[in-house]
Amino acid sequence: MSNSISSICILRLSAIGDVCHAVSAVQAIQRAHPQAKITWVIGKVEAMLLADLPGVEFVIFDKKRGRAAFKDLKAHFKGRKFDVLLHMQVAFRANVAALQIPAKVKVGFDKGRSKELHSLFINRRIEPQKEPHVLEGFHNFARAIGVNDNQISWDMPYSDEDEARAKALLGGLEKVFVISPAASKKERNWLPERYAALADYASEQGFNVVITGGPTEMEQSLSRKIIEHANCDIVDLVGKTQLKELLCVLKQAKLVLAPDTGPAHMAVTVGTPVIGLYAHSNPKRTGPYLYQHYVVEVYHQNLLSQKGKSASELPWGTRVKGADLMAQIDVEQVKSMFNKVVKQEQL
To answer: Where is the signal peptide (predicted)?
Structure first.
């Protein structure tokens, strides 16, 4: 597709980690098509993180409005027509949203990754990829419109005020180790006493330990348990940060420990190393992109146990099930990875 593109619509509603991956692709598109106006249809929470992203018009899709959200979208785009829609989400809600977006070309996923009737809502596909990370899938949408920029980078939007607020919350602490312990699903969380053991270990190595998270009862309960089990001092920022402030806290940290959760990917966008803890999903597909070599995982052994096949023999992205899989990750494994990261990153 030529440089004659003047208007591009991105459709990626959620979640935090995925929109972080998408930012890299969107900014590659901006470098290749500087003349094009970019509109991004995005979820309400995700928009809070990405607000003021340079050169992007955001249109918020509020799923809590139910059917009215689709009517809002149709009304917003009445009289407009994009040169291309990059339909980066296969969920049925996103597919119906795509119907409300007028575009000459609607680019979607390849057949191997199409589901929930995705194929009915597009007229062009990205090229198939062999075992891609989610971020690489998004960059393939950029390639579909002639972007050959393979640079993986982010310019995330935050203000001086956001940074100042983050510094105030950290109280001037140096050499910060952030634990962001909660994923959206409880089964993806590590055990609180094991997080506490890593907090104590990091403290012994001269780090100041900070715990972050949202205001939900699950996140607050988990953080309380971690703090109760720990012997070291922990700065508790759970429920105390807006998303941009959290981004700046993660930026000021030296190292982050997290399961498969949005803040892990936020940390990657601001260049902070992440130790990812994975059991249910393949870290090669959804792990912290620049720091996949720092993942501690039990996914592959459980996949083999449950399916009798390796990841390369199964549909890419196959998940494993079990409420207690994260308990298979032991403290010594994570301490060993902690030591490796500290040495390699010279922390």
So the answer is: none
